[in-house]
Request: fold
Amino acid sequence: MLERWRATCQALRAPADADAWFTIIEALHGSPVRAYHNLTHVAQCLELLEAHRSAASEPLLIELALWFHDCVYVPGTKDNEARSAAVGVEATRALGLGEAAGRTVERLILATRHTAAPTTADEALLLDIDMSILAQPDARYRLYTQQIRSEFAFVSDADFTKGRSQFLAGLLGRERIFFSGPLGGLEREARANIRAELERLTG
Reply:
């Protein structure tokens, strides 16, 4: 992952020391509680972006946002995205990329709150990449659900079932889960996985 980070910074022509920021990224994602929201997730997001890079207007800033979009993650809190965005902005500035880049990275990371429909094609692509786990084959999806349960190990089974079921029902209630052209086709698989998980949770 260090070499991947270096490649990102080289492509951005960032003049500052890139390795120092990778140390921070690695430390933030390295908490044992992060069964899913870790650097493996970041790597998978970057791989998917690479496959659909031509659909992005600012692919390098999407890439930078993906590195930082979950850098702050405390299960159960509501300000993870805002705090992650703040770190992303600080990194963008420290790397010498300018205020405009910082504002774009901030906007992209804040979009991962998934509370509103994306307002740009780049936001749509980033959100779909972040949510693509929902459309994975059954075995991978089940592993993901186990990883999320592990991250919420401090929550009782009853409370987790209630909260997770509400989250999943909310997803099913949306008109769309995926918004971009490249990944819009994941809708059917994602909804099937979500319904199956809901059935398992509610018995």
In short: The chain has two domains: 2-122, 133-202.
